[in-house]
């Protein structure tokens, strides 16, 4: 069964120690106990943040791996189809050069594949450039974890302040 990020993060939720004390009557505890509790809660919170970061990064890597396999298979099928299409385009260009432009068979034999090859190489360059640009824009920084750490910092400052 596939778990969502929220379901996985729920496994990392803070323990009951983070819950608010009952509001019935105020608790009076020694400062050493309060500091020890703060230390324990901070350590627990840090461990949960590390777990959340691991979950978030593993999801990103998993998604990247899965999509890389799809792209590789698609690329192989496309390459095979492109070879056939380029052969057909070269044959068509050969016929046009001989019939319309009245170029000799000998010259058309090398000129047609060269024209088709240059067009194909140009299209390929554009696609490769777009793919590299898109991949370079992908961030592997666990954004949700960083936001959660900022919230934890605010929480710790309130506890200490």
Please sum up the structure shown:
With 161 residues, the protein is mainly alpha-helical. It has one domain. It is 78% helix and 0% strand.
Q: What descriptors fit this protein?
A:
mainly alpha, 161 residues, 0% strand, 78% helix
What does this structure look like?
The chain is an all-alpha fold and about 160 residues long. About 80% of the residues lie in helices and about 0% in strands. It has one domain. The chain has helices spanning about 5-10, 30-100, 105-135, 145-160. The radius of gyration is 31 Å and the shape is rod-shaped.
Order of helices and strands: HHHH
Beginning-to-end CA distance, first to last residue: 44 Å
SSE class: mainly alpha
Report the sheet with the most strands, covering strand number, pairing sense and barrel closure. none
Instruction: Tell me the strand percentage band.
Output: under 5%
Total helices: the number is: 4
Quaternary state reads: single chain
User: How big is the Rg?
Assistant: 31 Å
Mean pLDDT: 83
The helicity comes to over 70%
What is the total domain count? 1
Shape, please? rod-shaped
- Uncertain spans: 14-19
**Number of E-type strands:** 0
Q: What is this structure's SSE topology?
A:
Layout: H1 5-10, H2 31-99, H3 105-137, H4 143-160
Helix pairs in contact: 2-3, 2-4
């Amino acid at each position: 069964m596939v778990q969502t990020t929220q379901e996985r993060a729920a496994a990392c939720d803070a323990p009951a120690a983070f819950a608010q004390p009952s509001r019935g009557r105020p608790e009076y505890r020694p400062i050493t106990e309060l500091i020890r509790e703060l230390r324990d809660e901070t350590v627990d919170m840090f461990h949960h943040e590390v777990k959340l970061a691991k979950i978030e990064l593993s999801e990103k890597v998993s998604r990247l791996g899965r999509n890389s396999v799809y792209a590789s298979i698609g690329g192989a099928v496309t390459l095979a189809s492109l070879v056939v299409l380029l052969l057909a385009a070269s044959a068509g260009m050969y016929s046009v050069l001989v019939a319309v432009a009245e170029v000799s068979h000998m010259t058309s034999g090398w000129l047609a594949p060269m024209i088709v090859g240059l067009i194909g190489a140009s299209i390929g360059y554009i696609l490769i450039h777009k793919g590299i640009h898109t991949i370079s824009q992908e961030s592997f920084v666990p954004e949700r974890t960083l936001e959660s750490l900022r919230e934890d910092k605010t929480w710790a400052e309130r506890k200490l302040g």
